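Quick check before the chapter quiz. The format below is the same one you will see on the exam, so make sure you can read both the input and the output lines.
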Amino acid sequence: MEPQRPAEPTRLGPYRIIGTLDAGGQADDARRRIARDDRTGRTAVLMLPHETLADDPGYRVRFRSEGENSRRLTGSWAAPVIDVAGPDADLPWVAYACFPALLLPAALAAYDGPLPETTVRALGAVLAHALAGWHAGGLVHAGISPQTTLLMADGPRLTGYGLARAAALNGPGHGASPGVDGFSLPPEQRAGERPSPAGDVYALGAVLSYAATGRRDVAEGTRAALPEGLGELLAVCLAQDPGQRPRPGTMARELRAASAPGAIGRLPDALATALARQAAAYPAQAPLAAHAPAEEAAATPPPGRSRRAVVVGGLSGAVGLALGAGGVAGWRAAGEGTGSRGTSARRGIAPAPLWRYDLGSEPQQTPLLRGGRTALVWTTDSVTALHLRTGKKIWSRDKLYPMSAITLLGNGTFVSPDTSAFSVVSLATGRIKGVERRYDGVEGPAIYQFLAADKDICWFLTRKYASGGTGTEDHAVVCYDSVRRKEIWRAPLPPPYQGDGDTTALLLSTMLLLPSQVDDGEGTSSYLALDRRDGRKLWTRKFAGMKDESAKQRLVAPGDLLVSCDEHMLRGYDLAGGEERWRVATKGRVSGTPAAHGQVVYATDSRAITYAVDARSGSTRWRRRSAAPLESSWTRGETAISHSGATVFQVTDAEIEALDAADGSLRWRSALAGKGQQAAVPGQVVGVAPGIVAVLNGTILYALPVD
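Here is the expected output.
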């Protein structure tokens, strides 16, 4: 590999450039360099802009944006992004955890000619399978070319997400724009159309044609040189009309089906040798500086012998190794079956979504999950129930007209409030099982907020307008049996606890807790506790240092502990006496709602640091800073935890990170695509169920497998 030109930077962020991946030192669509991370000593691959566009401000912005967006690609065959240059960097770049690796042109050079048909089929089957998953999730790669295809010991990887979008804005007659590999650019994109799934199929067909012939064109002569078994399929992939091209899933099946039994193939010896030599030429080194504390470290893999390090070590000591079933055969196996129904086996790579559902219009509240079976969604158009395992619509009603938040009951029904009544609706069928009209605000009091529900019972707040009364009897908490359609008890509310339709109540096994809504002038907050069985007042209690404004950021943790987030502090209070048990200072403002599982409380602050705090002692078990910090100190860093309690979800401006609940280490990161104004945000975790986490991005709802 030839040395770097002096004019090119030798250091980018924490990376020192030590070599080049580009065959012959040139690249048609971007530059790829081998670099060493001074923080960890590990070797990585850096992608830099095409040198003719590096000084174009618009291209630089788009290049960096697509680098951030490339985190959305999930699954084993997307090159894992470990770093992206900041907006103020002199030269934008993207760092991938892919080493040792050969660009496809370098692989052909190492093999001294076109690759064997079995290798090409395995490569195509894997990448077509990956495309099928990404397209199902609403993602278009728009950057597939020989230079963006890496061959590694355990399978191929695709880099260069969005290069076609970065190189040129939408418009007529782009032609062969600098920064875009014109060989694999679909004809419709050359004419100015936007990237599409069919364009990805064309680009992959061009890449496979190149791998099988060594020719960088798709002319008739090149197609004639294709192996007989590949020629017909690739000809359809390269059709001028996008509508005639096959879907990626069909392409993957045909590539697998046409292979003779037993002829799965293996990574050719020449490629294994080249990978081993590369690993030996650029070994990992001890980091130049001491490691940062765990809570300050970016989301780079922890020190130690990772799975990739084991592979690299094995290669560097075995030049000429034939990987056999562990090489290309492994690619083929990964491309078979659904491939998206399990969690990822590789740390850092998010699992592919189980399903994606476009709600069609703006959701009016966070989707509600019932057990592991149903997701209930209320939009401006309708109320819809989805099967949680498949994403299939169970039913949809456009005539329920909820006027405030829907409440799930624990008996397979939900409450849909109207202006003068509320309906109890079957979650299984969408049929109304009963309508309660006594709380109409005319003959009786009016409901102004549902508080909580458990099994057949729900609790809500009422206000009485008649007689112009001003006493405490005008506001009440009502406990209601939805099956017997009967009021169980009613308790008057004193003024500090009457709320304004935005009360955050806490439901415990024996009591209902209502926060004060009025500042007492002492900087304290108080709670009213009512007995769940009969509405009897149990106590009112002040909690010193707990501000009224943080009611939405409180929860009850095991051990009768009330946890509150106030500015730069997490506090744990004893419910029985009101005393503060512990406090944990945070580096940023905690404005999201914390989560608890077992004896641990989790919260994320505005610096994108997640804390795991022992609820009994207040000691910090671990804390971890995200590699994607929040944009401002007022941005909310949301936290959620999986149903099993094994995974903590940290949501930032750029991505959703899944952390191991035991030690805070990164499991995977993802940024699922929305549309319109939400297209560039990562989404938010809206619910968990056994084995599933639900993520909403704008009007797009995803279900991901977890744990």
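If your answer matched, good. The first strand starts at residue 11 and ends at 12.
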